[in-house]
């Protein structure tokens, strides 16, 4: 490609480096750009001028989110996400090998919070509020929850940081169990849905906070919540709603206390949220139980 006509056509060369041949166009202004001038965009590549214009158009919240993302995504792997999936998978294997004994040991049911109100030999075992997240009702239940955790966790954990992500997942799972205790105290529940929906609720708040288009997240969340009301599927919609609501609240706490100087305030607010959830379970559930017995 060295004919005089080709050489005279400046569109065959980078507009910033006239000596560099290229056939790649900026997706915004359609000017020719070489490899050194290309910046990856959601679709195709853009030139430096268009990149500068994009950055100027960003809101302060978007710029802060991008800085956090670049700082964390390059050095942090979603180790906590993989660890949670691994631990849950080990429990899943034990379910297959040992049978119903694993379910009976780890599932959550409200009588384990109030054994004196029920017959049947229940003992006080409040840790089941969290251990229920480790067991599932079948392979499909396990696979769907872990797939959602993997897909969301790979992006959300580097953005929040490992320990915030773990706190979000566990407190969200607690919120799902508390919702079951309050809204349906007669039912037992298993599954990581409370934690997974907490991640979805957090994503919704993050998207709203940085000014992103949150319609896609809203649609996915609405569809998953609606599926829970299909009675034939026997899904604990209460845990879904509880997890999503608690996850959104936790992300609001993170967003309002993101400065390093506010770390203690952030921890205290999370502790207060856990205390409030436990108080809800132990104070409201008895009233619901007495009304249904």
Describe the structure.
- This protein is an all-alpha fold.
- It has two domains: 9-47, no CATH class; 85-292, Rhomboid-like fold, CATH 1.20.1540.
- Helix content is 63%, strand content 3%.
- The chain contains twelve helices and four strands; from the N terminus they run αββααααβαααβαααα.
- The strands form two sheets. It has a two-stranded antiparallel ribbon with strand order 1-2.
- A hairpin with a 4-residue loop joins strand 1 (39-40) and strand 2 (45-46).
- The longest helix has 30 residues, at 263-292.
- The chain is elongated and about 90 Å long.
- The N and C termini lie far apart (86 Å).
- The mean pLDDT is 84.
Structure at a glance:
The protein is mainly α. The protein has twelve helices and four strands, in the order αββααααβαααβαααα.
Count of structural domains? 2
Structure summary, number of beta strands: 4
Low-confidence stretches: none
Provide the CATH superfamily of the largest domain: Rhomboid-like
**Rounded average pLDDT:** 84
The class by helix and strand makeup works out as mainly alpha
What coarse outline follows from CA principal-axis ratios? Answer: elongated
Largest beta sheet, briefly? 2 strands, antiparallel
Please list the strands of the largest sheet in the order they lie side by side.
1-2
